[in-house]
Specification:
Elements: E1 5-14, E2 17-27, E3 32-36, H1 43-50, E4 58-63, E5 66-67, H2 73-80, E6 81-84, H3 96-105, H4 111-116, H5 120-140, H6 155-168, E7 173-177, H7 185-200, E8 204-208, H8 212-218, E9 221-226, E10 229-234, H9 236-240, H10 243-260
Parallel strand pairs: 3-8, 3-9, 6-7, 7-8
Antiparallel strand pairs: 1-2, 1-4, 4-5, 9-10
Bound molecules: adenosine-5'-triphosphate and magnesium ion.
């Protein structure tokens, strides 16, 4: 069995900025892998490449034995990769249910014309989409607000909505980019319980998170980036005690303090 995700010597440049530099790692199915590092370390850039939002400048990305780094996003998501975004990407004027359903419409085969004429195949697909969406809304616990416009929901529920929408595509690999940002203590604890529940469904999860309690609790293994480079990889305990990791975080804090003086 090939590894689920293999990132091989990946570099990404934006003009003169090297956002990822020679990053390599791989992981097997069924795990929760954490990705941490100070602001600007290159975490979201790496997620954007794994979900094919843009390609690496150099290097390769393989998913379940298939090279994906030159494929467009619409070909990568059906392979089984879904994600949530650091900046929420919900349609504010749509209900929770519609937001989850809309993510599934793009992946159906019958097309717009047969949907418009309500042909039997399209009707059957619509029912399947409804059911799949509803299952995930229940899974994350949003059934009470399924008919509410997303724009009127608090942040905690919007983050659950993003999770439901990603899960509805039935991914093998789920990328969570700061899913707990802005959540209070209790919501963060509930989110880590949900991450375990997702893992127990057999979905592998790749988690970018600044909340150290959450990432240390949920991750089987953690990869640490600093200024675009991988500086450590290991169990939560190993990376917490790694001098390079401590230095990367403290060094950045000092810079921030100097900057505010
Ligand atoms: N689309 C882009 N165009 C230009 N520069 C970019 C782009 N995306 C990221 N960068 C730059 O790449 C570097 C890494 O950014 P990235 O967003 O990946 O960091 P991050 O680790 O996710 O940070 P944070 O913790 O603040 O979310 C930064 O210097 C950033 O300004
Ligand atoms: Mg980021």
């Amino acid at each position: 069995m090939p590894d689920l995700l293999e990132v091989k010597n990946v570099t990404r440049k934006f003009g003169g900025v090297v956002a990822n530099k020679g990053v390599s790692f791989s992981f097997e199915s069924g795990k929760v892998i954490g990705l941490i590092g100070p602001n600007g370390a290159g975490k979201s850039t790496l997620f954007n490449m794994v979900s094919a939002i843009f390609p690496p400048t150099e290097g390769e990305i393989w998913f379940a034995g298939k090279r994906i780094d030159r494929l467009p996003a619409f070909k990568v998501s059906p392979l089984g990769i879904a994600r949530t975004f650091q900046n929420l990407q919900v349609f504010k004027r749509m209900t929770v249910l519609e937001n989850v359903m809309v993510g599934l419409h793009t992946s159906t085969s019958s097309g717009i014309l047969s949907a418009a004429f309500k042909l039997p195949k399209a009707k059957k697909e619509e029912e399947t989409i409804y059911q799949q969406a509803w299952e995930e809304i229940e899974f994350v616990g949003l059934e009470d607000v399924a008919a509410v416009e997303a724009g009127s929901l608090p942040l905690g529920k919007l983050r659950l909505l993003e999770l439901a929408r990603a899960l509805a595509t039935k991914p093998q690999l789920l990328l969570l980019d700061e899913i707990a940002a802005g959540l209070n203590h209790q919501e963060t604890a509930e989110m880590s319980d949900l991450i375990f529940k997702v893992r127990d469904r057999g979905v592998s999860i790749f988690v970018v998170e600044h909340d150290m309690d959450l990432v240390m609790r949920v991750s089987d293994r953690i990869i640490v980036l600093d200024q675009g480079e991988k500086i450590a990889e290991g169990t939560p305990n190993e990376v917490q005690n790694d001098p390079r990791v401590i230095e990367a975080y403290l060094g950045n804090d000092e810079e921030k303090e100097e900057a505010t003086v």
